[in-house]
Amino acid sequence: MRSRLDVKFCAFLATSLDGFIARLDGQIDWLEKANHLVPTGEDCGYGDFFASVDCLILGRKSFEKVLSFPKWPYGDKKVFVMSRKGITIPESLTNSVSCTSKSPSTLRQELAELGIKKAYVDGGQIVRAFLHAGLLNELTITKIPVLIHEGLPLFEKRGFEHEQKPVDTWFELIEVHSWPFGFVQESWKFKPN
User: Fold this and answer.
1) Domain extent at residue 152
2) Most buried one in 56, 90, 155, 187, CB count within 10 A?
3) Mean pLDDT of each 10-residue bin along the chain, 193 residues long
4) Cβ distance 150 to 20 under 8 Å?
5) For residues 18 and 147, is the Cβ–Cβ distance under 8 A?
6) What CATH number should be reported for the domain holding residue 156?
7) What's the domain count of the chain?
8) Roughly how many angstroms between the first and final C-alpha of the chain, as a whole number?
């Protein structure tokens, strides 16, 4: 049974075949190009996933990247931007976007008090911070059939410095799905030791 403080944290992201989430400069042109392979109407499960979450937790860099898109993709869903630096929130988003410098553990308590049941964690550094804090419950990775050879890896040592040193984290494979256009998606669930 889940306690009142339980918030389910889930990541849904794409990597290149060699495990990168972006180029070294943060660009995702390879992902944008790959999206042209996807038939109209296919979203690889993203729509259902997005509909299932109560809020999003983004890193500052991911937030800034999303702000560069032609249209804000999250509607009026609550978005928490984790950043040690202040951020500029456009006036049109002040009702749904807020900034926090809290640790993942402290943010978890705050979200639980707000009645949040399921949160979408996005952005490489933020996903790693939740992973290292032992809070990431589910991880969905869509592998894109391209090698970009160098970039920002999904998994690396750094998280938030004030979090404890990470320990081995085991996951159980829930599902694997492949599409004729070359994408392969793995869904993983945290497996307590």
Assistant:
1) 8-37+71-187
2) 56
3) 72 96 92 95 97 96 90 95 90 94 94 96 91 92 97 73 65 97 97 77
4) yes
5) yes
6) 3.40.430.10
7) 1
8) 18
